[in-house]
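Q: What structure does this chain adopt?
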Amino acid sequence: MMEKTRKHLLCLAIIGALSPVLATQSYAQLHLEITKAPEAAPKIAIVPFSQDQSIYPIVENDLNRSGRFTSASKNLPATATLNNPNAEAWASAGVPYVVTGSSKTTADGSFEIQYQLYDIEKKQYLLNELLTVPASRTRQAAHMISDAIYQALTGIPGDFTGRIAYVLRNPATPEQRYTLQIADTDGEQPKTILTSRDPILSPAWTPDAKKIAYVSFETKRPAIYVQDLATGQREKLASFRGLNGAPSFSPDGKSMLFTASMHGNPEIYQMNLETRQLQRMTNDSAIDTEARYAPDGKSFIFTSDRGGSPQIYRHDLASSSNKRLTFRGAFNARGTLSADGKKLALVHRPSGSNYRVAVQDMNSGVNNILTPTTLDESPSFSPNGQMVVYATREGARGLLSIMSLDGRFRMNLPSETGEVREPAWAPK
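A:
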């Protein structure tokens, strides 16, 4: 039984760890499907912006998929314009917040967008801002507006301007069976980073979100590459004998953790990215894999079967000591930490059950199953820690799902072609 478990984990290390195309090519749109929304959420009216038909719908969709608000731009009970919120009418209609705006083209072809957020109860503007953006960045401007509104009303930075990396698998196109892509968090504006007939696994962002590392089997053996998103240039970081997988960058971007089996057993190694010097971080007869730096850079978490089953441990860099973090369930792996280091998301399998995403409080150790789906894998926190994206299956579909930590909101991001796997939310 022990040998079976160890082989399972070794497979996990390879799968969970593992001709460049410039990031300008679009490919395989993801389609947003809201599957669960709060029954009662504060209303916010998005009044159609004057001289605009593209920006306000994005803001409306963003706020609706936040799980914190119910926003609408159609069948509104009252009117409003810039500097004229018509507060009494909205108060009578029971709508506490109103967004108004306008958009116009400037002489140089850019867009000038003004928007206001009005608090009906307080009778004051919470936001009154002017944005000037190139015509090609109006969608990003809309997400920036959503971020600002979300933060003004919740005190938490919004993540609508963020991006998610993922891998598409499409057996119908053998020469391009695997595709590494990035897209907005609503699935729009997909960009292809790499296509290959061989597996692409474990995308990992650098802290500045300008590069992505991944594992490629294009040479028939796993190797870790890092690719610049602006130029498409890439560099091979690790191609040692045996396994090379599960890259993770330190918060300062100066080092990388990865799994390698160059000496026979899968262990965690740290690479100095300036000198390429290696340091072996674990040395155990068990299989150690899936290392992820803590946000403060003073420790990392990893998966190991040293206790008899796959569990998550923390390695302190100063003392080189290891501490087991998970105890519930027969299987805990694929751990990742929230940006504040307070939450641990992981793949959890209770005894006799399927694989689910759970979130564990790092202080109390309390572990709560988050997802209602099964066969879940690869959880990744949003930068503000309010959402988790993960890969799952619904029937014959392999898709991404995004769920709020309070469990009140969930949406799916399936692809029009193929399966979507290995999500990684970009840092901010």
